[in-house]
Design brief:
The complex is a heterodimer of chains A (115) and B (110). With 115 residues, chain A is an all-beta fold. Chain A has no helices and eleven strands. Chain A starts with a strand and ends with a strand. In chain B, strand 3 (35-40) and strand 4 form a beta hairpin. Classes of the chains: A mainly beta (115), B mainly beta (110). Chains A and B meet through strand 5 of A and strand 7 and strand 8 of B.
């Protein structure tokens, strides 16, 4: 069974940092590009960042460029998102997802940026 | 990185058919056959309904179908049921490992 399990969300003050993790199982993680997608409260889905299977290619949405860093560890079947200089508008549920072929999503982890 | 354009809302009566459109550009919807559709009920995780424009995952009723013409993709739900009432999002590959979502469409079953 394919599983993507996010962790690391929580409450953080503006300007703070947080690191999200995503543990993958049930598929050959190291052959898939991976993504982070977020959804602010009451809003739609927003693609945040992607990383190719070997980490050779990394891309970010303009809204997070320069503040967020995506990475992966294929030996651990894990995906990460380091989030720095957090803003109130980064408050959202963050999903780990493979969007290619038959898409797979995790259950999400809530990040709240508030003083 | 402009969002795909979806109608904000659509509605239909039980048993009817509804179609939700998703308009992009030749750089995303029109350029690749990687359009997917998600159903999201309040407080729930998005559920994959259609991927690769027309493919349906196992377990999704065949009342749901996808298509694409030019820069516009469409999700058609036939034989509308009360449980189909939800938000629907389209998603398209936009090249260079990037993706773009539609703004979402609220489906109301009258």
């Amino acid at each position: 069974e394919v599983q993507l399990v996010e962790s690391g969300g929580g409450l953080v003050k503006p300007g703070g940092s947080l690191r999200l993790s995503c543990a993958a199982s049930g598929f050959t993680f190291n052959t898939y590009s991976m993504n982070w997608v977020r959804q602010a409260p009451g809003k739609g889905l927003e693609w945040v960042s992607s990383i190719s299977s070997t980490s050779s290619y990394i891309y970010y949405a303009d809204s997070v460029k320069g503040r967020f860093t995506i990475s992966r560890d294929n030996a651990k079947n894990s995906l990460y998102l380091q989030m720095n200089s957090l803003r109130a508008e980064d408050t959202a549920v963050y999903y780990c997802a493979s969007l290619i072929q038959q898409p797979k999503w995790g259950q999400g982890t809530l990040v709240t940026v508030s003083s | 990185q402009s969002a795909l354009t979806q109608p904000r809302s659509v509605s239909g009566s039980p048993g009817q058919s509804v179609t939700i459109s998703c308009t992009g550009t030749s750089s995303d919807v029109g350029g690749y056959n990687y359009v997917s559709w998600y159903q999201q009920h309040p407080g729930k995780v998005p559920k994959l309904m259609i991927y690769d424009v027309t493919k349906r995952p196992s377990g999704v009723p065949d009342r749901f179908s996808g298509s694409k013409s030019g820069n516009t993709a469409s999700l058609t739900i036939s034989g509308l049921q009360a449980e189909d009432e939800a938000d629907y999002y389209c998603c398209s590959y936009a090249g260079s490992y990037t993706w773009v979502f539609g703004g979402g469409t609220k489906l109301t079953v009258l």
